[in-house]
Amino acid sequence: MSLTGTAFLYTAVALAALALALPFLLWTRLRGPRAVRAALRALMLLFAQTTAVTLVFVLVNNSNNLYDNWADLLGTGNHVQRAADLGADGTGGIAYRRLPKVKQDFEQADGPRMHEAGGVRVTQLKGRVSGVSAEVYVWLPPQYDDPAYRDKKFPVVELLSGYPGSAKAWFGSMHVHEQLEPLMRAGRVAPFILVSPRTNLVAKADTGCANIPGTVNADTWLSIDVPKMITDNFRALPAPDGWAAAGYSAGAHCAAKLAVAHPDRYRAAISLSGYNDPIGERDSLANQSPALRRANNPYVLLREARTPPRIALYVSGEAGDGYEAAVALAQAAKAPTTVRPVFLPRSAGGHTMALWRPQVPVAFRWLTAELSGKAVGAHPGAGAPGSHGRPATPHGPSSAGSTPAELASGTSSRAGAGRRH
User: What is the value of pTM for the model shown?
Assistant: First the structure.
């Protein structure tokens, strides 16, 4: 029975209801010695508590997509086939762009919201360079199958979940495709191909999106194998101009790190409530040594870069949860690197989907503007993103009179938020 399946949810509901009914039906009807009756009543209470906790866990897990299957929950899953030392650039000397194309088989993904907005498809990918084997979810924009776009290539955003977290989370919990589809049809957001690969590759540990010889090559999986598969199988723009990464929490750290470390593979990144130093996630494999921490800290990479990378970063967070990281990146950035720090007040929510979900439209409008030179519009020549080199939607101004929704979306300023409270 699937951990996230409907059958398991209904079973948990039925057992919880049964556990609640049993004491009412049997509490005073039990027969036998006092010790036996006490033991049976204790078992009923224990059964009620266990089923209640199980039901709450199932509801929370389904809502936040924390664990995708039993192997993830129990810590028995391992998606690393090999973890060779691939060198500083993560390629192992392989000319990966020249590797033969491999046709992937895709099927309709199952789970909450996977059938919405045209549906999300999934494939099992064997990384030829990284040695990682795992699932990758893909959603195609509404323009993709439009005959007017049959010769067009599309920009791509790689979506990275937090830890723990399922690759389904951006679709199942963040509703990213449902939020963006109408904006894409209206030409307010570029028609991005959305790609969500598994990031939780090692049992009971966060990879930190790092390459660690002998353990995992998560960086190469995300920045080489997954993009190669997408360009092999879809009409996707080539890297770096047509590519960006986006993430929340641990995935936010990964998105910023990938863009800073690989400006030849990504042009932009969206970081929601992330951190710079991998020590921000205690289970991160990237915080096991000072050398690994420095090699996977986007602030250090940006500050010490010999040539500032031509990338753009959108970094949002609350005080003590992402905003300081945003400011640090902005202070370290030198042209042509650009960083947009976005302050979110405590009233906007905590470290949850409720904080990150409303930021999707504004962050992707920002991304449309940043990639406007390469992005495909809603209709050729119709004044969409990319037409005449201008974005369809300019950056939203900060405002002291922002509504709570605007505060959560990141369109308010820190000064404005301060005047509201």
Answer: 0.80
